[in-house]
Amino acid sequence: MQNVQQINYSMKKYFQHIILFLFTAYFFGCGKPGPTEVVNDLPNDETPLQIEVLAKNPEDALYKNGYDSTGLLIPPPSTDVFLFISKNIVSQQSLSISYDIAQVFFFDKNSPVILPDGKRYGFHMKKVIPPKINSVQTKEVSHIIHSGMGSSVKETVLGPKYMLSRTGILGDSLSLSYKSLVKFEYRKGMMNTVPPVEFTVEMPDQIIGNVTVTQNGKGEKILLLEWNKGTKDSVEIIIGGKLKSEKAATAFFKLHVKDNGRVIIPPQLIKAIPKDRFDRLVFSFVRNAVSRRVEQSFEFFTVIQNTHSIIIDYP
Amino acid sequence: MNKDFIFSAESNPTDFSLVKDWSIGISLGSEFASQATSNVYAFGIAKTFGSSNLYFRYSPGFFKQFVLTKNQAISGSDTSYIPLKTNLKYQEYFSTGYSYRFTDNLSGGFTLRYFVQQFSQEEVGAVYSDSLYLIKESATETMKLWNMQFGADYLFTPSLRLSLSASNFINMKNGSLSETNKAFELQTPKNVRAAIYTQPFANVEVNLLYETIKAMQVSVGKTFLFDKFSSSLDCTYFSDFSLNGIQPSLSVQYGNICASVSGVIYFSEIHKTASLADLTSTGISNLVNNKYSSNKVMVNLSYLLNTKQEKLVQFVDVTVANSIFPTFTERFVDEPFAVARVVNLSDKPVSVKPSSKIDKINSELIYSPNVSIQPKDTASIPFYTVVSEQYFSPKHEISFANFYLTTENRDADDEVQKPILINSSNAWNGEVSNLRYFVKKDFDFSAITAKRLLSKYKNELDSANNALMNFLQAKILFNEIITGMLYVADPIASNDRVQFPHETIDVKGGDCDDLSVCLASFYESIGIQTAFVDYRTNEQSRHVHLLFNTNLSPAEANLITQNDKKYYVRKNSLGEEKIWIPIETTERSNFSNAWEKGVEIFSNEAFDQLGLAKGTVQIIEIY
Asked: What does pTM read for this prediction?
């Protein structure tokens, strides 16, 4: 009997000690050591890359506005005047078309645009004396955007914009050259007593892109985008898709890439674009210069760019 | 106890063979990186089954993670910026091992360690549904690794042990890695490790370890022993091709629990960030201790769950010094019948309680005095016994004696059985000093018989001078008992058998020791002080007779004789001089002749031949 009591006492003592152990471990050992940061000091060909979604709702026609095969996508900036100058080349298979466009928007800050679906979309434009681009007077054109999905697509007139465009050798007398200055002139009134708003902006170097379908080490199809290196810190590449039957393309992603001439598109981005909805992919290489200035109390937001859009069949 | 058994898998696959029964250990640590964190490093358990040991360790803290920010990021229209990363995770989930003790000196074993390496590359993905949004997707590759180490230990002496082990000669991998991730794979260089564990001085340990991957460790430690606990202080210096430092440690052991606190202090530069070029070229081979580790503090707790007791002491040998003479009842209380050499196996002082039980002699354990033995020391422990006065055996027999060593443990730490000769009750070893035991053995009989014999002379004794009482009683008893007896020598050898008084009376004869014992027993039983006179040649007893105390003072000597050569004066315990007269018991005609003869022999040998001075004549008091 005495031995059984001794054993029971010993076991009870053992369990008490074990419980004490476990509590100590539990309260003491909550943390986990953090990771050690690795500094990339190896030369590598991985291009620094930021990816941004443009078409948050791809079915909305809103994302087909201002983005067509020229590779332009114009979100309305918050400014008094928006000057947009773009020299574009569109390539599909062996065919290339050049397309130049200059647009000027004078926003009425007192008149915001509310789309039919209730979204706020910038401001209405106001009528002014048409400005000049490279001494050529722009033409007044109504700026209409489409929004909504499916059968609910509606048109919204935002107001007049002032533009020049030229396709190939046809169109306005708009002469844009790479690495050259473009002059902007605007008079507030007809009287010559008020000096005009004048400034120049420089067109960046021409960007010439190339798209190659290849394979990675896992046998997956990947897209290699290449272009001529320039002097800019970065270029933009816009990836969109379109159907053969449609003129307008939907812009999906914008890639901010270091201007070193090469980038591999992450395969998952392309895979996400449904093949049953889009049979063409559009890659627009954009080399631009963006600036803001205030001239005679007008705040100008200026984008001058040249693009090269390449349309390929869905790989 | 191996207090660091939880890290045995790193240095010595056979080290957990030092675990005695169950052992549980836990290691907790704090690492002082850019942000101090604490976590459980490892939890281990080991169990001994006979000569085998099993060991298991779960090691959540054996973990290393690197993160490399890629050149890709997801940005939002709200200028948010989410960079993509590459995550490299290395984890040793657990290890298990087995060791076997082939002999007391040699043990061998192996451990299996399980690692999982997980390399995740974050890539941007997109989801096209009602809305289009970007997501981070991980492409993860996993490589599982079973790493085997095997080794052997050899114990040259209790203070010198050699250990050899080899690792990474056998690795089993499961999984595949792309070329990119192969560069991050855990390095597993083949390695042979040799270690020497020594104890050059008491409680001082010096350990040396060398590895063929150009790593080494030197460790020095000292143990301090206190009453109820012990404490160790040690310091290890370690160095390999990429880092070096020290690991000081303080541990305390109290009973079954051992706790230690140690720190790791790196002398080499601590890399708070890793270079990708370096990581891909040299990599890491140790998850806890590498050039990206930071200084640490660790707390180890070990608990011995011994369901069986740990042997603290052990017999080296037992020597039965003497056979048992059952009649010498009190002799073995003062003089051990056996002596054992006992070793203290533990590292603390142990108080040993020896006990023994001689079959047929003892009905229960006889405990001998406790002996304290220092750690690792050997001591001689005497075993005493007691023979019951009721014991009687007419013949010699071989029996066995069980010897036990008991310490703080409930059961005996060790036991040994030895054969032992139990002589017959009449056996005598020839030492006259031991004849007293035969005198005392039959006291009851002698007293009753003496009184009965003396009662016949009551009138004579009552009318006699009181001073002559001893003399007269001695004379009467001699005449009644010894007179008429036969002188009979022992049948086989003269010195190995003595009759008890009642036996001498029964057989009516005996040799000089029989008759002397018989007469002495009767005299002592009625208060007459006696002594044996031992006549020796070549240090062996040749003859014995009696001296008895008449209790007469020298002035009263004339009451018994006018011849001063017939008596001898001796002082009693009070310092009083009393007259003693010798009696030759083999002179069985009458008291007077026995007295004459006794005087003749005693005077000649003790005085004329200077026997008392030379030691050839010895007077041995019975009490």
From this structure: 0.61
